[in-house]
Amino acid sequence: MTDAAFDPSTPDSYAFWTQERLRAGDLDIVGHVNNNAIGVFLENGRVRMFMAAGENLYSAAAEGGSPETTWVVRRLEIDFVREIRFPGIAWTGTRVTRFGNTSCRVEQGIFVDGTCRVTAVATAVCFDPRARKSVPISEALRGQLMKACDLAGDGPFPG
Q1: pLDDT tens, position by position, 38-57
Q2: CB 109 within 8 A of CB 157
Q3: Which end of the chain is more exposed for a tag (fewer CB within 10 A), N or C?
């Protein structure tokens, strides 16, 4: 896998999409969707992609147990490209573009009315919640994540 030709601001770069209906409560004082709401859109995209890969992120915890591995964000960079205003629908594209030993690079774009409004890059770490440390990403999990990146999620993107 290579990310050399990957352009996070182009909808064609993504297959996995999540959709969010913009809410009046998401707005800041000047009428933009605020950075907290944008962080939630990005988180939902990452979590839904990991779950589509078969990662049981939350149900084990709800049942009183904990999954063998989960994902934590070590680093998150967000570029606010253009304003997002209410009302509307925000579409978040999510894709793994690179693997390390214990982490992966997750790139995302948020689009409204077909236009890129936000790009983001997260370093997600495969984490053992019992041992409280990072663990290597298995080859099987790498394959599952790559397959999940090609699923439609809430999509396909309507652009």
Answers
A1: 999 999 999 999 999 887 76
A2: no
A3: C
